Amino acid sequence: MSDDRLTIRYIPLSLALLWDDNKKRHDIGALIQSFKRHGFKDSPKFEPTLNGGEGGIVEGNGRFIALDAMRGGGDDPPRGIAIDDDGKWLVPVTFGVDAASEAAAKAYGVDHNALTLSGGDFDLTDHMRLWSEGFDTQLIELAQEGITPVAFDDADIQALLDVTGAPSGAFDIDDEPPLADYVPDAIFPSQNEWGVPDLLPDLQADFLELPFTRWGEISRKNKMRGTYHFYTDDYRFNALWDDPLDLPNSRCVAIVEPNASTNEQMPMAVGLWRIYRKRWLARYCQNYGVKVWVDLNVSPKFAELNLLGVPRSWRAYATRGLDKHLDLIERDHALAVKHSESDDLLFLVYGGGAATETECKARGWLWLPENMHVKDGRRERRKNG
Predict the structure, then answer these.
(1) H or E segment to which residue 30 belongs
(2) CA dihedral in degrees (256, 258, 259, 265; nearest 10)?
């Protein structure tokens, strides 16, 4: 008889470590409405092997995101959520009966969601609609490790291999030794009063190296000989500050700096800290030959601070695109031109629709569509599975 037991403990919402490779789609608005109507009755499960052994929430990530949105929006906590003496929200989390490995934990996370469809007449295509971009690759990787989720069989895996496959050269797993094996407590050279690291101008991007891959789209342990970007939810890359080894060890050619969220209400000290962290991570990666695109996508309040540590000779910049905010793209470009004292820039815009694409083409800027996988110099729309 097993001695394993499940226990539920309340932890601060702010301390939750989500699964950074979670591919499950969520309807956050519906979850919020459910919590308001029914209360919070389904405690998320913590798995210590996730996130490379750092631990994380294997099922219940959407619930945490919804709770954080409620708290940030000024809502009262739903029934089932406690409040400590400092006013912090406390969330019930299930511990125990842990998976034997990270792959086993991931397989459980898949099954916890996918098995809810197994009682109906749903085929593989129906299942894939539950998951976001990159799930097919994740499922194939689990099968290669000998841990296929119960909800899928060998025929499903073979169908994925036959139909979707991984982009050529993007997701190779090989025996190359790691480039980086420790994280230094380093202070990099800086010419500004805040000590924000100076980037090395010789290691700025000089062209867009494909595939252009969102961090978390594939396993962090895979090789990805293209460009990583971080235009995604912050929780998917926050752990990099504590352990960035997977980034240079992926053998990526280039990165767009991690894009930590900012807003106009954020204290200047908090924004400066986020700018420091992303520039430190970029400078750390440059130590291993990784080229860098400077991220300009910050709130206007931090636009000038965001260029601390960026040499005047820098010409490779990236930002997010939104059709309703073409003015912000223009602002970012004008700021880069002013800083570099040149309009001969590599200016990359990620996302937005037809209006953004038209503007970029007219201005001679690079444009890549969001929610599409870009490889081999072409655009390839992937299933939103």
Answers:
(1) helix 28-38
(2) -150
Beta carbons within 10 angstroms of residue 94's beta carbon: 18
Strand partners, 11: 91
Quote the tokens at residue 252: 């990526």
Segment 299-323, tens digit of pLDDT: 999 999 999 999 999 999 999 998 8
Residue 268 buriedness (CB in 10 A; 0-12 / 13-18 / 19+) = exposed
Rama region for 33: left / alpha / beta (φ>0; ψ in -120 to 50; rest)? alpha
Beta strands in 170-306 (DSSP E): 212-214, 227-229, 254-256, 291-295
Query: What is the rounded CA–CA span in Å between residue 79 and residue 291?
Result: 49
Can you tell me the distance from the alpha carbon of 204 to that of 340, in angstroms, rounded to the nearest whole number?
Answer: 13
What CATH architecture is 7-95? Alpha-Beta Complex (3.90)
Residue-wise pLDDT tens digits, 137-166:
787 788 777 788 888 876 777 776 665 444
The answer to whether residues 252 and 215 touch, using CB atoms and an 8 Å cutoff, is: no
Structure tokens at 268: 């200047």
Tokens of residue 168, six digits: 């050529």
Q: Which residues of the chain have pLDDT under 70?
A: 1-3, 154, 160-177, 219, 371-385
The Cα-based distances of 86 to 5, 82, 90 in angstroms read: 31, 11, 11
Q: What angle do CA 330, 369, 114 make, to 5 degrees?
A: 135
User: In angstroms, what CA-CA distances link 239 with 20, 99, 101?
Assistant: 8, 21, 19
Structure tokens at 323: 């059709």
- Strands 89-95 and 212-214 come out as unpaired
Name the E strands within 128-200: none
What does the alpha-carbon distance between residue 205 and residue 208 come to, in Å, rounded to a whole number?
7
Structure tokens at 202: 């010789």
pTM for this one? 0.58
Question: Are the C-beta atoms of 65 and 28 separated by less than 8 Å?
Answer: yes
CA separation for the pair 148, 162 (Å, rounded): 17
For residue 312, give the 3-state DSSP assignment.
coil
Residues 6 or more apart in contact with residue 42 via CB below 8 angstroms: 60, 63
Q: Is the Cα torsion angle 25, 27, 28, 32 positive or negative in sign?
A: negative
